[in-house]
């Protein structure tokens, strides 16, 4: 995965929060050596990149240069806008361009239908911590993506955190449920901890600061530690102590946190499958 950046330009369709985070990562990591053409009509979204010579902004796909041959087209528009965005891009299939989608619910089959069966397609599911360089993205490629294209797409995704290749596209529904929605579950945990602290007598702002910093600090400890999460839990738990008493409730086989998360992830996975059609 350490090949030199491509000299051909990138084409980014959509520069919202995720697209903008990825663009920042590419610029910082040197992956934009050939420049980046960005289709984004929102001037405010492009303001952070206005001073970058590598970035060329277009209001619409129709405004792209006729001779543009990008190495990768990154599709970062909302799923409901994808039909309009992808239709004008089919011509790039003939140039050997790879298409990298970060749109939830849009399958490889969907893109092959719109771009042609010869299109090289990578389907990816990132998550919002990409905005601070701590995201994780799972991706899967069709058999038209060659080794060099896959390695380059891996680097593009890795510019905002970690990237993992999935063995099967069917995994992406569970990925969407687990890591795609995962930040919302963690934020809910912060809310729940803070409310529980209030219920035990702490002022609201005091409890919230304790909860936010505890969760973010624990996440960073888990990221840096070589120990398993289960061992990190044990490290905090003194036998017969206060944490052990709380864990009796949280780890109850019937009413604890695991059956709740099992049901939640299953529900989100099922919904992802429904949305993908």
What this model shows, in words?
- With 277 residues, the chain is of the alpha/beta class.
- The protein folds into two domains: 10-172, NAD(P)-binding Rossmann-like Domain (Rossmann fold); 182-276, ProC C-terminal domain-like (ProC C-terminal domain-like fold, Orthogonal Bundle).
- It is built from eleven helices and eight strands.
- It has helices at 17-29, 43-46, 82-86, 108-115, 147-158, 171-180, 182-199, 204-224, 229-236, 242-250, 257-276, and strands at residues 10-13, 36-39, 55-58, 72-75, 98-101, 120-125, 135-141, 161-165.
- An eight-stranded mixed beta sheet has the order 3-2-1-4-5-6-7-8, sandwiched between helices.
- Helix 6 (171-180) packs across helix 11 and helix 7 (182-199) crosses helix 8.
- The longest helix has 21 residues, at 204-224.
- The protein is elongated and about 70 Å long.
- The two termini are 33 Å apart.
- Mean pLDDT is 95; it is low at 1-5.
CA radius of gyration is: 22 Å
**Proportion of strand residues:** 5-15%
N-C termini distance: 33 Å
Number of spatially distinct domains: 2
The gross shape turns out to be elongated
- CATH homologous superfamily identity of the largest domain: NAD(P)-binding Rossmann-like Domain
Could you name the key traits of this structure?
single chain, 277 residues, alpha/beta, ProC C-terminal domain-like fold, 2 domains, 14% strand
Helix/strand layout:
Elements: E1 10-13, H1 17-29, E2 36-39, H2 43-46, E3 55-58, E4 72-75, H3 82-86, E5 98-101, H4 108-115, E6 120-125, E7 135-141, H5 147-158, E8 161-165, H6 171-180, H7 182-199, H8 204-224, H9 229-236, H10 242-250, H11 257-276
Parallel strand pairs: 1-2, 1-4, 2-3, 4-5, 5-6, 7-8
Antiparallel strand pairs: 6-7
Helix pairs in contact: 6-11, 7-8
